[in-house]
Amino acid sequence: MARVTLDHVTKRYEDVVAVNDMNLDIKDGEFVCLVGPSGCGKSTTMETIAGLTKPTEGTIHIGDTDVTRLPPKDRGVAMVFQNIALFPHMDVYENISFGLRLRNYDKEEIDRRVDEAADVVQLEGMLDREPNELSGGQQQRVAIARAIVRNPDVFLMDEPLANLDAKLRVHMRTELQRLHKELDTTIIYVTHDQAEAMTMSDRIAVLNAGELQQIDPPLVCYNEPTNRFVAGFIGSPSMNFVEGNVVENGVETDNFEVGFDPAGIPSLAVGDQVSLGIRPEDVYLVDQIEDPDAPHLTDRIDVRTDVLEPMGDEIFVYLLLEEDQETSMEDQGMAGQLLMSVTPDTEIEGDEDVDVVLDRSKIHLFDTATGEALAHGVADLTGIGSEPAAGEVESDS
Ligand code: ADP
């Protein structure tokens, strides 16, 4: 177990800045996922921690030791990669114990550690099998056991589940969580799959273009994203974004208005351009809710249903905001479109005119120019579309 600290770590490859001024403080025993799109610098960050590459600037500590210039073998880390790379002609026991045998551990100690690791990853009884007699998931467990026997302070895992099929991936997620609990060790885990990060981590570090965007517990990233990038990356399907302008009584978009008092957000001024974000589960069909005029909801918005995606447990409904229906799904653009999630028993069809409302307590506002978050929820900021608070005096009247 150990704390891992990155202090202003930058890694440049000629003119590419793979990692830019990264500061991370990963606590002892924490499970942190590094997530972000391909090329955002996840693997490079991990490689600087592992010692496979040296940062151009900055320092890295594992525990109290400055490991920035130490070779990988002296850092107390064990890595598990996407490519499992087991030795094909060695059985499971030989694969797991390979590193220990190389370091001349005595046989008794090796046997003890292999048995323990095999127990943790549930490979007991399979120690004499060769890799080709194992499933993909079992092979990945051998690779993890090989890391466990080294008794590392920190596990570094770079997309270890990426080559497994979807069902096995979900199963292995729970196995890794169990493993983390059992070993009580620090795990840093790279993935481009936000669902994997959401389900497993204590905290998620979201990266974009080599820069750390946010590091927080999964639900904080989901409910209070620091910027539009994190808002769009965390959550599947993605948050809807609609461009708008700040007016005296809220935000006006091409198709609807959201009422609140902009004075409630000190950095906001009338005329500012903002992106309004709302998740598909926070868009409601008026016919399906008890009180569509409840104060925390927006006014009704006329939309036309476009494509439906029945998922079994919910239906995703693409809604067209535009009056003329030229922006259909074929455009693939999100402008003029809103995705709504409804329960599977909802009677709804494509090409139907319906009314929807948005939950104002779940509306996020982002500065259009910088992407920075300005507000998470506007329902408590009184204005049009909400009941004025008791005793409140209307201004300008
Ligand atoms: P990720 O793991 O998020 O997909 P990487 O850390 O692999 O991203 O890469 C970040 C950026 O650094 C990319 O633009 C990639 O092309 C670049 N990069 C990574 N490794 C090298 C290298 N050895 N030489 C040059 N550029 C590299």
SSE order and pairing:
Elements: E1 4-13, E2 16-26, E3 31-35, H1 42-50, E4 57-62, E5 65-66, E6 77-80, H2 92-102, H3 107-120, H4 136-148, E7 154-158, H5 166-183, E8 186-191, H6 194-200, E9 203-208, E10 211-216, H7 218-223, H8 228-233, E11 240-247, E12 250-253, E13 257-259, E14 273-278, E15 283-285, E16 301-310, E17 315-320, E18 337-342, E19 353-358, E20 364-367, E21 373-376
Parallel strand pairs: 3-8, 3-9, 6-7, 7-8
Antiparallel strand pairs: 1-2, 1-4, 4-5, 9-10, 11-12, 11-14, 12-13, 14-20, 15-19, 16-17, 16-19, 17-18, 20-21
Helix pairs in contact: 2-3, 2-4, 3-4
The chain binds adenosine-5'-diphosphate.
Organism: Saliphagus infecundisoli
Membrane topology: Peripheral membrane protein
Catalytic activity: L-arabinose(out) + ATP + H2O = L-arabinose(in) + ADP + phosphate + H(+); D-xylose(out) + ATP + H2O = D-xylose(in) + ADP + phosphate + H(+)
